[in-house]
Amino acid sequence: MRGKKRVVRLRSATGVVVCAMAAPLVLGGAPAVATAADTGGSGAPVALVGALADDGVSLENARFTVVAQPAPEIDEAVVVGETVPTQTLPAELVEAKGSEFVLRLRPDDLAEGFLSGDGLATVELEIYVPEKNAIATTMASFQLVGEGSGTTAEWAEPDGVSAARTVAVPEPIRVEMELHPLPKGAAERPAGGVSARTEGGVGAQSAITRLIKTSHRMATIGTSYPIGGQKATMFHGSGRTITYGAAVSYGSKWNASGDKSISNGYEFTWAPQKTMRAHRTQVRYGLYSHQNKDGIELYRRWRPIVETGVTKEKKLSKRPTWNKGKGVGKRCDTLPRGTWSRTNSKGKSYSLSTGVQMKKIIDIDLSTKRNYASNSKLTYELAKSTRRLCGNNEMPGLASKTAQYRS
Fold first, then answer.
1. Exposure string for 201-220, b = 16+ CB within 10 A, e = fewer
2. Which pairs from 274-277 meet CB under 8 Å and 24+ separation?
3. Which one has a higher pLDDT value, 82 or 148?
4. 3-class SS at 362?
5. Cα→Cα distances 340→268, 332, 380, 388, 405, Å
6. Percentage of the chain modeled with pLDDT above 90
7. Looking at CB atoms within 10 Å, which of 25, 57, 206, 216 has the fewest?
8. Other CB atoms within 10 A of residue 31 CB
9. How far apart are CA 10 and CA 119, in angstroms?
């Protein structure tokens, strides 16, 4: 993140305001088309930026569908067989040029029940390209930082806070999307013979999201690597937000596509142990069917719903070699004897591309991402001969992962 730091406060939405189309952007090259603080001509802050991975495909004639997902208390109450309450946002919130796009969103664009008390929002985005008769979709969560609902409000990567926090001016969430052919019978045409102009929906766009089934999956949210008889532990506190990966299928094959951030309602401290471990939480995942107004299924998605409160651990046998090789001086150092803990979100978040154990269901595992904090911390005991700590990609207090070595 870049920019001047400031204290910001979170706020809930209370109504719906349709946002006007923002002024055209000057885009080019990478999908870094705007910052979250860039409000454009509409005064709406940037929530999401991205691009198509497909070469030579323009989005200027594409149809965009932006659907807000319900806040946790509503989402968690949906039972198998029911339709998920959603809010379809104006397509004009998305600007496109070439293969790139920007989603701008005011907090007040979200109706009551679609912005959580800690300022967290989740949207699903669909892109339909008529000339290819193909669709791309993803989902993402972002968190409100800033005062009110106007130009002072901004969106940032979820940090799991529920009160004021000091942040740098945030970068928007960035995604890359890939086109897939639509199923037979779901071409661009008014759904059910009704005018798309008056109804706002066509056969190529999903209109119904139904929960088909749920499954409890274990997810790694941290790892510890003690050495020499010393102990390590991890604390997972109540109210922490963790981002879990989602997957989409347009037929038989599943692909990782987007993610969703959810907050837990419990806390747990793993007992200090001498063994290397993966620290895991159980997450209830849902399988959802996305259908158009004709009832034709366009795609299916697995996504997280809620942490269940079950925690586990898995012993690890291989110690990482972050204490060796090029750049070791930039990620390792020897500390005094004592107790070391990573307790804040400065630096890099813990992330694992295969963190959620989904392979038995969809042949791939999904990602996890967690920020460090006072209620989400990793702790090592440091003795005379085991005082060396190394990060995997930065110094220990700033790295995504940290391991202990002999000094």
1. bbbbbbbbbbbeebeebbbb
2. 274/226, 274/229, 274/230, 274/231, 275/226, 275/315, 275/316, 276/223, 276/224, 276/225, 276/226, 276/315, 276/316, 276/317, 276/319, 277/223, 277/224, 277/232, 277/313, 277/314, 277/315, 277/316
3. 82
4. helix
5. 19, 14, 5, 11, 13
6. 67
7. 216
8. 20
9. 6
* Token pair of 209 as six digits: 């999201």
> Residue holding tokens 């669909």?
126
pLDDT band at 118 (very low <50, low <70, confident <90, very high): confident
Both tokens assigned to 357: 């154990």
* 375-388 burial code (b ≥16 CB/10 A, e <16): ebbbbbbbeeebbb
Q: Alpha carbon of 343 to those of 282, 308, 359, 379, 398: distances in Å? A: 23, 24, 32, 9, 10
Tokens 């930082």 map to which residue? Answer: 145
Total Cβ atoms within 10 A of residue 126: 22
Distance CA 244, CA 220 (A): 10
Determine what percent of the chain falls in helix, strand and coil, rounding each to the nearest 5: 5, 45, 50
**Cα–Cα distance between 272 and 20 in angstroms, integer?**
55
From the list 269, 202, 203, the residue with the least C-alpha distance to 236 is 269
**CB-based contacts of 310: which residues, under 8 Å, 6+ apart?**
216, 281, 282
Q: Residue 314 has which token pair?
A: 């898995």
Bridge partners, residue 258, by sequence: none
**CA pair distance 179, 264, nearest whole angstrom:** 34
Residues 46, 174 contacting (CB under 8 angstroms): no
Entry field: residues in the chain: 407
Contact call for residues 219 and 245 (beta carbons, < 8 A) = no
Cα gap 60→243, rounded to integer Å: 31
- The model carries a pTM of 0.85
Beta bridge partners of 208: 291
Are 138 and 125 in contact by the 8 Å Cβ rule? The answer is: yes
Rg of the chain, C-alpha, whole Å: 22
Q: CA–CA distance from 398 to each of 346, 353, 372, 406 (Å)?
A: 6, 19, 10, 20
In this structure, the number of other CB atoms found within 10 A of the CB of residue 30 comes to 10
